[in-house]
C-alpha cells in the first residue's frame, strides 16, 4: 500500500481569521485576555494544576449560578452537550418530561427527550413528569421567562426543575438555590465571552438523589454524571479515575472569563446589561422599529429581537451590515425565522458604544437595502 | 432575593500554567504556532470563513486518514465523543457488536455499547455483529494491532469495521480506504499536537448506507450524523442548518496541526516516529529495562510501554521524573496498571533529543528512587 491521497493544497495557505463585531446571539467577542489564557501551554488533564483550575472554575460557576451545590462542573462540550448531559442523567426510559416550548430551545429539548430510545417505552397514558424543562432566556424569540414559584410547584409533584440559561445567565438575575432550580446549565460563549466549547452545569441535592439512584446507567458514557462527578472532584472520593481528556486550554479560558465576571460582580453585570438593553430599545423605537416582545419585563436584556422591518428582506439587511459595518447581527431561528432581527450584546459586548454602532448600522441598512412598495 | 454567594477569592489569583514536557500518552506538547492559531478572534460558527476552515480540516483529515470519504469531519469533543459518535450512529438497539479487547479502549467501547438502552433489547442468542471494534494503537498496553485483511473479513459478514486510531494515526502507516475501514476516528491531542477538544472522524460509503437507513434515530441529538453531516457540508445540501455552536478556536488549532502534518508529509512523519521509537527502544534495553511488548512489530511507535522496573514503586518513578526533570511520563492504565511505565513521543515530541531527555531522567530516577531488596 502507498500514500495515494496527496497533502491538500488548501492547507498551504496560512490561516487568516477576520476581526468582526459579534453582535449576534452568540458566540460573542472574546477579549484578548481570555484568548491569551487559552493559549497557555497544555498540561495533563489529570495534573494537580489542572485540578486546581477546575476547582477555581467550580467556585466561579457556583458564584455565577448563585448555588452551593457540590455537584457543579463544566461539561467538555457546548450548550447542547450540557442539555444532553442534563436529560441523559436525569431521565430514564419510560419516564416522561414536560417541556415549555417558548422558542427553539424548548423544541430541541423535546427532540432530545423523544429520541427513540427514551420514547419507545413511554406508556400510552401520560404519567407524572420527572423533569420540567424551561429555557430562561429564549434567544430565538428574545423572551426572558420568569422563574419564581416554578421550582416549588415542580417539587410539590416530585418533579425536577431543569433550566437552560445559556443566553441569559450573567446578564440577568438568577438564583439557582433560592429559585429551587435542580439542574441549570449555560455555555461559555455568551455572557462569559469565552470561546465555545465548555458548558457550566450544576445539579441540586434533589437532582443528585434521583440521578444516583437510577435503575439503569445513563445512555452516554461520556456524559455519565458518576464519571464526571469524579473527574471534577465532586464525589468526595480521594482519587480521580481517568474518564476523558479534558480540554485543558478551554478550561484556561473558562477560568479567565469567570474571573472577569467575579471582578465586575454579578450585580454590576446585571445592571449594565439592563441599562444597555433599555438604551438600545429606546434607540430602536426612536428609529421607528418595533420590538418583537411587547411586554417590557419579558424582554431578554442579552438578546434583543426586533420585528423584521416591513417591506425589507431581512437577509439583505444582515448581509449589508456584515459587509459594510463588519458587524454580525442575525435573523430569526426556529419559530422566529423571517419574523425578526436578533441582536446580542453579551458580556463585554454590552455597552452603549456598541449600541450606537448597531443603531448606526441599522439606519444605514434601512437606507440602502431594497424596500418593496407594499 | 439577593446575591448570597460572594465572588470566590481563588479567582483573584492570576492563572499560571507551568511549561512541562508532555511525554505521557497524551496530551502532547502543543507548538506555539498551533496555540497561537487557537487564539485568533472568534467568528461565527455559521460564517463562510468558518465553513472554509472546516472544509480545509476535512481535506486534512482525508489526507491523514488516506480516505476519499465525503463523510469526513471533526466532532466537537474529545476521542471519547468520537467513539460515542461512531457507536451511537452505527448501532441500533437490538444489534450486536464485536469488540476486540486488547487494552482499555476495547473495554471502554464494550462499556459504551452495553449501556442499558442498547443492551436490554439484545436477544439471548448472539446474532451476527453489525460492527467490529478494534483499537489500532492500544495506548494502555503499547500494542499496535495489524489491520490488514480484517476489513475484508468483516465485509464478508456484512459487518462494519470500526477502528480507534487515537494513539496511532499520523505516527504509523494507516490507509483507511485500502484497508477497508468503515469508521475511523482519532483525537486532536496526540500526533496532531493540537489541544484536546476535537476529534477527526470518517465514515465509508458502506457505513453511511447503514447509518442513513436506520429504523430509529440515534440516541444522541448532538452526535446524530444527519445533523453533523449537514453542519460539515458533507450531505450535498445547498444550505446548512444550525445544529450546535462549533468550537471555532479549536477548529483553528486543528487546521494548523493538519497543515503542519501536510508540510512534513505522512511518509516522513511515519519514518520519523519509527526511527525515534527504535532509538528509544535500543536506549531502554541498553539500560537494562525491558519492553512490555515482546514482538518488535507489535510495538506502537508513539507510546512505548516499559516493564515496571523490578523492586521499584512505579509511582515514585513518575513523580520523581515530573518533579526533578519537569517531564510527564505515566504508569499503566486499565489492564496495565502497576505493570508498566508509559512514554509517549508523538508528533513534534518524537525526536532523538527528547529520547535522550527521557533516558537521562529514567537513569536518574532509578538511581534516586527507593529500591526494595527483593
TrEMBL record, chains A, B:
| Source organism superkingdom | Eukaryota
Please state the Enzyme Commission number of this protein: 2.6.1.44, 2.6.1.51
CDD domains in UniProt:
AGAT_like (cd06451)
Asked whether the UniProt record includes Protein transport among its keywords, one would answer: no
Instruction: Identify residues that carry N6-(pyridoxal phosphate)lysine.
Output: 190
UniProt binding sites for substrate? 342
Q: Which Pfam families match?
A: Aminotran_5
The EC category is transferase
Task: Name the residues that span the membrane.
Answer: none
Which Gene Ontology cellular component terms are annotated? peroxisome
* InterPro entries per the UniProt record, alphabetical: Aminotrans_V_dom, Aminotrans_V_PyrdxlP_BS, PyrdxlP-dep_Trfase, PyrdxlP-dep_Trfase_major, PyrdxlP-dep_Trfase_small, SP_NH2Trfase/AEP_transaminase
GO MF assignments: alanine-glyoxylate transaminase activity; L-serine-pyruvate transaminase activity
An example GO biological process term is: glycine biosynthetic process, by transamination of glyoxylate
Domain (Aminotransferase class V): give its ranges.
Answer: 42-356
Which reaction(s) does its UniProt entry say it catalyses? Answer: L-serine + pyruvate = 3-hydroxypyruvate + L-alanine; glyoxylate + L-alanine = glycine + pyruvate
Q: Which cofactor does it need?
A: pyridoxal 5'-phosphate
Per UniProt, the keywords (alphabetical) are:
Aminotransferase, Pyridoxal phosphate, Transferase
Record-stated family: Belongs to the class-V pyridoxal-phosphate-dependent aminotransferase family.
Its assembly, as annotated, is: Homodimer.
Q: By what name is this protein known? A: Alanine--glyoxylate aminotransferase
Amino acid at each position: 500500500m502507498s500514500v495515494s491521497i496527496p497533502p491538500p493544497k488548501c492547507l498551504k495557505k496560512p490561516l487568516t481569521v477576520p476581526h468582526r463585531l459579534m453582535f449576534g446571539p452568540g458566540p460573542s467577542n472574546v477579549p484578548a485576555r481570555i484568548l491569551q489564557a487559552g493559549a497557555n501551554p497544555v498540561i495533563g488533564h489529570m495534573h494537580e494544576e489542572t485540578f486546581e483550575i477546575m476547582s477555581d472554575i467550580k467556585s466561579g460557576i457556583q458564584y455565577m449560578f448563585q448555588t452551593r451545590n457540590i455537584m457543579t462542573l463544566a461539561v467538555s462540550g457546548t450548550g447542547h452537550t450540557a442539555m444532553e448531559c442534563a436529560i441523559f442523567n436525569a431521565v430514564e426510559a419510560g419516564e416522561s418530561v414536560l417541556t415549555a416550548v417558548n422558542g427553539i430551545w424548548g423544541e430541541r429539548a423535546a427532540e432530545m427527550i423523544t429520541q427513540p430510545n427514551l420514547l419507545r417505552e413511554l406508556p400510552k397514558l401520560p404519567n407524572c413528569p420527572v423533569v420540567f424543562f424551561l429555557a430562561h432566556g429564549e434567544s430565538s424569540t428574545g423572551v426572558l421567562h420568569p422563574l419564581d414559584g416554578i421550582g416549588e410547584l415542580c417539587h410539590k409533584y416530585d418533579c425536577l426543575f431543569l433550566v437552560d440559561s445559556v443566553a441569559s445567565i450573567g446578564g440577568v438575575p438568577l438564583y439557582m438555590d433560592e429559585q429551587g432550580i435542580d439542574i441549570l446549565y449555560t455555555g461559555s460563549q455568551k455572557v462569559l465571552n469565552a470561546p465555545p466549547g465548555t458548558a457550566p452545569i450544576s445539579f441540586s441535592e434533589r437532582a443528585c438523589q434521583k440521578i444516583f439512584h437510577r435503575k439503569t446507567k445513563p445512555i452516554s458514557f461520556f456524559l455519565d454524571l458518576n464519571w464526571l462527578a469524579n473527574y471534577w472532584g465532586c464525589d468526595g472520593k480521594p482519587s480521580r479515575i481517568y474518564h476523558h481528556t479534558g480540554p485543558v486550554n478551554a478550561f484556561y479560558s473558562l477560568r479567565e472569563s469567570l474571573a472577569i465576571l467575579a471582578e465586575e460582580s454579578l450585580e454590576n453585570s446585571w445592571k449594565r446589561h439592563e441599562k444597555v438593553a433599555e438604551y438600545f430599545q429606546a434607540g430602536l423605537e426612536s428609529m421607528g422599529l418595533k420590538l418583537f416582545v411587547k411586554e417590557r419585563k419579558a424582554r431578554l436584556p442579552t438578546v434583543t429581537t426586533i420585528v423584521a422591518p416591513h417591506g425589507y428582506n431581512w437577509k439583505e439587511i444582515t448581509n449589508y451590515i456584515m459587509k459594510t459595518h463588519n458587524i454580525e447581527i442575525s435573523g430569526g431561528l426556529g419559530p422566529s425565522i423571517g419574523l425578526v432581527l436578533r441582536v446580542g450584546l453579551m458580556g463585554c459586548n454590552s455597552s452603549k458604544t456598541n449600541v450606537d454602532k448597531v443603531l448606526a448600522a441599522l439606519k444605514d441598512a434601512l437606507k440602502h437595502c431594497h424596500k418593496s412598495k407594499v
